Amino acid sequence: MNWKPEIDAAAARIDGHAQVTPVMTSATLWSQPVALKLEQLQHTGSFKTRGAFNTLLSSEVPAAGVVAASGGNHGAAVAYAATRLGHKAQIFVPEIAGPAKIALIEQTGAALTVVPGEYANAAEAAEAHEAETGAMQIHPYDRPATVAGQGTLMREWEAQGLEADTVLIAVGGGGLIAGALAWLQGARKVVGVEPERSRALNAALEAGKPVDVEVAGVAANALGARRIGSICFDLAQDHLGGSVLVSDEAITEAQHALWRAHRLLVEPSGACALAALRSGAYVPAPGERVAVLVCGGNIAPDPLA
């Protein structure tokens, strides 16, 4: 697939719907300056808004509206985008989504159902709703329109003057990193960062194909995909520069570091990429310029008080 024209078209489509999020350089988070993209400041607190708007604006939405299964962030993005565009939305989330994300979805006015279990259980409920009502299901990561929408983030970051040899990106189902790989096409090194207890991409690369993995840990409600998306896996085989794992403790430490250094409040998934740098899971070469994508901020402030 020729991704760059698709991402260019997505950028034009979502212009005025998704925000251009700020960038900064931190001199305190690591021993060398680190470029940060603050996507947690996007509408609904994550990059997912980009893919949601691109999918809706490039599709014929039925009268029954849309349905989505989500660990929280995708559901919030679909709910926000659908209601802004005048469509009905039914969102299914697992119990582990957490109160901040559930409240965010409720604020949009979309219909919300909390399902016992994990993301896979919410996905089953969404599929049943789709079959019953004819609503259009919006997949959180493994569809071309979703990946193209997420790819607008890296396109935007480069337009903002990104100076980096390597970009560290957290991975759940793979939509975000797939978009980055699709846009960059090997022009910069992209390293996927996953929690040790939710390692869908790492396990797939190890096995040579997407495989089911266990889902657990502090970032499970955002990065807890049971299996990596096929689009991400194919792009990773061609362009990925590395795959590393970080502990829950390293993720939590990176969350606190972002708060202490810059008063940036992020959820565990949003700190996952930085955790690779601070914990030593990823060790740059001498002189290597590193950028970190901060992808989500849907957490209540209490844990960092």
Automatic annotation (TrEMBL):
<keyword id="KW-0663">Pyridoxal phosphate</keyword>
<feature type="domain" description="Tryptophan synthase beta chain-like PALP">
    <location>
        <begin position="17"/>
        <end position="296"/>
    </location>
</feature>
<dbReference type="GO" id="GO:0009097">
    <property type="term" value="P:isoleucine biosynthetic process"/>
</dbReference>
<dbReference type="GO" id="GO:0006565">
    <property type="term" value="P:L-serine catabolic process"/>
</dbReference>
<dbReference type="InterPro" id="IPR050147">
    <property type="entry name" value="Ser/Thr_Dehydratase"/>
</dbReference>
<dbReference type="GO" id="GO:0006567">
    <property type="term" value="P:L-threonine catabolic process"/>
</dbReference>
<dbReference type="GO" id="GO:0003941">
    <property type="term" value="F:L-serine ammonia-lyase activity"/>
</dbReference>
<protein>
    <submittedName>
        <fullName>Threonine dehydratase</fullName>
        <ecNumber>4.3.1.19</ecNumber>
    </submittedName>
</protein>
<dbReference type="GO" id="GO:0004794">
    <property type="term" value="F:threonine deaminase activity"/>
</dbReference>
<keyword id="KW-0456">Lyase</keyword>
<dbReference type="InterPro" id="IPR036052">
    <property type="entry name" value="TrpB-like_PALP_sf"/>
</dbReference>
<dbReference type="InterPro" id="IPR001926">
    <property type="entry name" value="TrpB-like_PALP"/>
</dbReference>
<dbReference type="Pfam" id="PF00291">
    <property type="entry name" value="PALP"/>
</dbReference>
